[in-house]
Design a protein that fits this description.
alpha/beta; 5-stranded mixed β-sheet; 39% helix; 2 domains; globular; 8-stranded mixed β-sheet; Nucleotidyltransferase, domain 5
């Protein structure tokens, strides 16, 4: 069984073809700068790069057709015909109460359109890609694995806000959570490393340009830092994170901004970039700190503070912690940040092996640490493929 996983960004298209018998990646296809004359297409078979070229990729339709042509290219012996693809799984973002792993139908498409406002950079390109596949491969089932799906079983009291009940019941205003595929993979891999398949208390830290934490108690994601939209929670690359909603009317009046302009500031010019005065990339911030920038130092301190704050909340909610796992670009590469965060858990007996931490080893906690600390590369595409297979064919397919 072969499943094609489609990950659509605002200007990128990533697709992986997996053989689910062995969960092997047969081909990894990446197109960057979709919509430009000099779009870059890279195709990998295993770790071997077989295509690396610039060409005009005008839209997602053109990009998807390009990828399918390479999959069929006899030079690479990937597949002989498109009927070998059993399904296409999408790492979709938001469909309100339709979130989860679902067959893409007209009803799901309508739900995605209805909730575009929560994921304006993600839902529109996914809708375009789904439309292309429906026309190109009408015989192949399409499955949406929505990011909030892993958070669906969180307690209701953890998902509601203190809004009028009408907002919840009739307008879907609640905490959805995101990065579900990443947190699900990290949870599954962490409990395997702990050798605790049933009873465990895990905090998954997806740290990057887009950041969220998730508390997982005995397999249930009981809380996560992102809320109604991906804009909330921890300060992120360009996202403001948690803040008092009454700031909006105040700053709109003071600066003469429209609501749209104020919201654009919250999502595009805020976060690490807004505080640091440089970019939302932690590597740039660290470079500015070395140059003596107080603003960059403040941005990094705020980011670390937010992460610690959520870890503290989850410690109380789960009444303990077995493992803390870092992933994402920052989580994988910033050993100083990991050391600073875990130092706050020293009172619970958490200790790092400093050498292993500097080397970015898989396990970085000391042998006598009472809390295990891991550094794991996430694999969202594998979760999308597994969930797609499970929905359509069952676990044993």
């Amino acid at each position: 069984m072969k499943i094609l996983v489609c990950n659509v960004g605002s200007s990128s298209l990533k697709m992986k073809l997996l053989d689910m018998r062995t969960e092997t990646v047969l081909a990894n296809c990446i197109i960057e700068r979709v919509g430009h004359e000099n779009a870059v297409t890279r195709i990998f078979i295993g770790t071997r790069k077989v295509i690396n070229k610039e060409s005009s990729i005008k839209n997602y339709s053109s990009g998807i057709k390009t990828v399918l042509e390479y999959l069929l290219d006899s030079r690479f012996s990937i597949i002989n015909n498109l009927n070998e693809i059993s399904a296409v799984g999408f790492k979709t973002v938001q469909a309100g109460d339709k979130n989860g792993t679902v067959l893409v139908t007209d009803e799901i498409i309508q739900a995605m359109e209805n909730f575009t406002g929560l994921a304006p950079a993600h839902n529109p390109p996914y809708l375009q890609a789904i439309d292309v596949f429906r026309n190109l491969l009408p015989q192949i089932p399409l499955v949406g694995v929505f990011e909030p799906g892993f958070h669906i079983n969180a307690p209701t009291y953890a998902k509601v806000y203190g809004t009028p009940i009408d907002w919840l019941e009739n307008h879907g205003v609640k905490k959805y959570g995101y990065h579900g595929a990443s947190h699900q993979y990290i949870w599954d891999k962490t409990r395997e490393l702990l050798n605790q398949p049933k009873k465990h208390k895990i905090i998954s830290c997806h740290l990057g340009g887009s950041t969220s934490l998730c508390a997982i108690h005995d397999g249930i994601a009981i809380d996560t830092s992102m809320g109604f939209s991906p804009q909330s929670g921890i300060i992120q690359g360009t996202r403001i994170g948690d803040f008092d909603p009454y700031i909006l009317p105040y700053i709109m009046k003071r600066k003469g901004l429209t609501l749209e302009e104020a919201l654009a500031n919250c999502s595009e010019n805020a976060g690490l970039a807004g505080l640091s005065g440089t970019s939302g990339d932690m590597r740039d911030i660290n470079a500015e700190i070395k140059n003596g920038s107080k603003r960059a130092k403040l941005a990094r301190e705020k980011y670390i503070y937010d992460i610690k704050r959520y870890i503290g909340e989850y410690l109380v909610l789960m009444q303990g912690l077995d493992a803390l796992t870092f992933t994402g670009g920052i989580g994988l590469k910033d050993s100083d940040l990991r050391q600073t965060i875990t130092a706050s858990l020293a009172f619970l007996g958490c200790k790092l092996d400093l050498s292993q931490n500097r080397n970015h080893d898989q396990k970085i906690s000391a042998s006598d640490s009472k809390i295990s600390v891991f550094v794991l590369e996430t694999n969202e595409e594998l979760i999308v493929a597994r969930e797609t297979q499970k929905l359509l064919f069952g676990k044993s397919a």
